Amino acid sequence: MPRPHADDRAPEVTPEDAWRVLERARRRTAALTDSVDDADLMRQHSVLMSPLVWDLAHIACQEELWLLRGVGRQEPMRPELDDIYDAFRHARVDRPQLPLLGPPEARAYARDVRARVLDLMDRASSDDDPLTRDAFAFGMIAQHEQQHDETMLATHQLRAGGPVLEAPEPPSAAPVASNEVVIPAGTFTMGTSTHPWALDNERPAHAVHVAAFALDTVPVTCGSYLEFMADGGYDDPRWWAEPGWAHRVREEWAAPAFWTRDGSQWLRRRFGVTEPVPSDEPVVHVSWFEADAYARWAGRRLPTEAEWEKAARHDPAADRSRTYPWGDDEPTAEHANLGQRHLRPAAAGAYPAGESAHGVRQLLGDVWEWTSSDFTGYPGFSAWPYKEYSEVFFGTDHKVLRGGSFGTDAVACRGTFRNWDFPQRRQIFAGLRTARSLPDRETGGGPR
């Protein structure tokens, strides 16, 4: 995406911008699906996930629906596929029983759709239709594909067998000044009304007053989480919300997902490799229930969604909200661990160039961070262009995650981007950082 102007006016989006992110998404999709054989693509590696081949054809089906039919007003290419690849009609557990396209046919369908989309690119920035204004539909589809790419990466984590994906190691940590950062009380602008590719749940921008609080400078590490485990954190119901404790007992959780114990040493399985748990990396594959229990054990709490966004976006010197923690420039390899560039979180304290104005690090990339907030719409929320993206998930069943992970692409990761999931989910690349409340007098802050 082009860089937003400093005064928060919407940037101009060109067809080249849209095509660039669409092609980047397709390269990632190809890397995830070409790395395994056809039998592996058709296999369901977990009842929590679809077969990889379903995701591949679903990506193409959504692209046809929104770009070829919605923007191009074209006749359906394969109308019989609409039901098969409708995510709301068929639960993941049931998808292997559907008459899915085989890998060669799914790839051919995806190529055919994309070739036809190229012919539409002259309409990518038209103001005649809300779907094409600022190339919104093209940006939405790029985000959709990248979201499925992260889902497919999670499927790779769940699959049995040796490693098939490769990536370089992430950068090492840099020193941090303190373990926590104090955020003074005050009002900031949450959400956005101007980002051209923001999704409906990020809108509209609205003023939110946040009381003074302190936030961990970096995400909670595996080393700190091991202390919680060694202190009996999984065996003490004092730290757990009642439904979380019931779930922990039922599922017999004793560690994050993919961790096993070998004598006195904890190991983890990561994309087919078994390795010692790295104490300096952010912990990953923990549920909201586990994150909440850890925070209580530490004498702290999970931040609210508004607290997280204020720490990530608010620039107190300019009294404005940034697009990203470091400013409005697009993420680079110096800012954050995004885009499946590395297949693991970077050590806590990495990416000093990505630090927020308040001095908080690694707010984008590495691990999704659980917040204490339920997923609801902002004041003035309006579902668009379809209710099934956000509105049907509103309520107390889902908790909000923020910040993206190493598996998230930059097009689907900004300071306003909101993710959500059930509190028991652990296959996602989720971790946490903790917060604590402060009296205003401790910070010298107050409402503006």
Overall description:
The chain has helices at residues 15-34, 38-42, 52-71, 81-84, 103-118, 136-158, 222-230, 242-251, 288-297, 305-313, 440-443; strands at residues 180-183, 186-190, 206-210, 213-216, 259-262, 265-270, 273-276, 314-315, 320-321, 368-375, 395-402, 419-421, 430-431, 435-437. With 448 residues, it is an alpha+beta fold. Strands 12-11-10-13 form a four-stranded mixed β-sheet. A three-stranded antiparallel β-sheet has the order 1-4-14, covered by helices on one side. Strand 8 and strand 9 form a beta hairpin.
Quick rundown:
The chain has helices at residues 15-34, 38-42, 52-71, 81-84, 103-118, 136-158, 222-230, 242-251, 288-297, 305-313, 440-443; strands spanning 180-183, 186-190, 206-210, 213-216, 259-262, 265-270, 273-276, 314-315, 320-321, 368-375, 395-402, 419-421, 430-431, 435-437. It is α+β, with helices and mostly antiparallel strands. The protein has a 4-stranded mixed beta sheet.
